[in-house]
Specification:
InterPro entries: MazG-like_dom, NTP-PPase_MazG-like_C, NTP-PPase_MazG-like_N, NTP_PyrPHydrolase_MazG. The protein is mainly α. The protein contains 13 helices and no strands.
C-alpha cells in the first residue's frame, strides 16, 4: 500500500506527515505531547517570520517561511480532528465560505465598480454584522500590544469615538509625556508610558502610518547604525564596553550621516 507520507504530494502529503507525527504509538514523542496552547507561540513566531521575509524582500526565503506557517495550520487542525472539534477540510471550507459571503461584488449580484476604499468599508461592515456584543469584543488578546492598540482604536472610531484630525493627538502626546515625567512610582510609570504608547499609535493611525511597520523600520535602522558603531570600534581594536558614550555617539552620527548621504 502506498504511504501518502512518503509518496504523496503537496498538502495531502503534509497532512499525512502530521498525522503520523501525532500518532500515539509510532509518532514523535515531542509532537504527541503538544497541545493548542504549546503550539500557539510557534504559530505567532512563524507569522512574523513570513512578515520579516516580505519586509526584507527575501523572496528566496518566503516560500519556506510560508510552508512553516502552513504547517502550523495543519498542526492545529490535526489536534482539533483528534479532539473531534473540526478538521482541516472544515477550516478551509469555513474560510472559503467567508470569502464568498464577503465578496458579493465578485461572486454575487452587486456591482464590481467600487473603489478599494469602499470595498474595505463594506468588508468591515460585514464583519461588524457577523459580530455580536460590544464594539471592542473580538479583538484578539494574543495580538502584539501595538497591533491590538490600533485595532481597538479603529473599532472605537467606527462608532464616532475618535479625534477628527492629527492635531489634537499631538497635543495629547505632549500631555501624556508630561505625565510620564511626573510619575513617582514604578506602577505609575508603567501606566503612563502605556498611555503614551497608546496615544502614539493613535497618531500613526491618523497619519495613515502602520505603527507596526514603522517600528520594524526603526528597529532595523537602529540595528544597522549600532552595527556600524561596533564596526568602527572593531577597526580600532576595541569593543563597545571599552568605549565612552561620546565615542559611540560620534560613530553613530557618522553612520547616520552616511545613510542620509546615500539616500540623497
Amino acid at each position: 500500500m502506498d504511504d501518502p507520507a512518503r509518496s504523496g504530494k503537496g498538502l495531502p502529503r503534509l497532512r499525512a506527515i502530521m498525522e503520523r507525527l501525532r500518532d500515539p504509538e509510532r509518532g514523535c514523542p515531542w509532537d504527541v505531547e503538544q497541545d493548542f496552547a504549546s503550539i500557539a507561540p510557534y504559530t505567532i513566531e512563524e507569522a512574523y517570520e513570513v512578515a520579516d521575509a516580505i519586509e526584507r524582500e527575501a523572496w528566496d526565503e518566503l516560500e519556506g517561511e510560508l510552508g512553516d506557517l502552513l504547517l502550523q495550520v495543519v498542526y492545529h487542525a490535526q489536534m482539533a480532528r483528534e479532539a473531534d472539534l473540526f478538521d482541516f477540510d472544515s477550516v478551509a471550507e469555513r474560510v472559503a465560505q467567508k470569502m464568498w459571503d464577503r465578496h458579493p461584488h465578485v461572486f454575487g449580484d452587486e456591482s464590481n465598480a467600487k473603489s478599494a476604499q469602499q470595498q474595505v468599508a463594506d468588508w468591515e461592515a460585514a464583519k461588524a454584522k457577523e459580530r455580536r456584543g460590544r464594539t471592542l469584543d473580538g479583538v484578539a488578546l494574543g495580538l502584539p500590544a501595538l497591533m491590538r492598540a490600533e485595532k481597538l482604536q479603529k473599532r472605537a472610531a467606527r462608532v464616532g469615538f475618535d479625534w477628527g484630525e492629527a492635531g489634537p493627538v499631538l497635543d495629547k502626546i505632549a500631555e501624556e509625556a508630561a505625565e510620564v515625567a511626573q510619575a513617582a512610582t514604578p506602577e505609575e510609570r508603567q501606566e503612563e508610558v502605556g498611555d503614551l504608547l497608546f496615544t502614539v499609535v493613535n497618531l500613526a493611525r491618523h497619519l495613515e502610518v502602520d505603527p507596526e511597520a514603522a517600528l520594524r523600520t526603526a528597529n532595523a535602522k537602529f540595528q544597522r547604525r549600532f552595527d556600524a558603531v561596533e564596526d568602527g570600534l572593531a577597526a580600532a581594536g576595541r569593543r563597545p564596553r571599552e568605549a565612552t558614550l561620546d565615542e559611540m555617539d560620534a560613530l553613530w552620527n557618522a553612520a547616520r550621516a552616511a545613510e542620509k548621504a546615500g539616500q540623497s
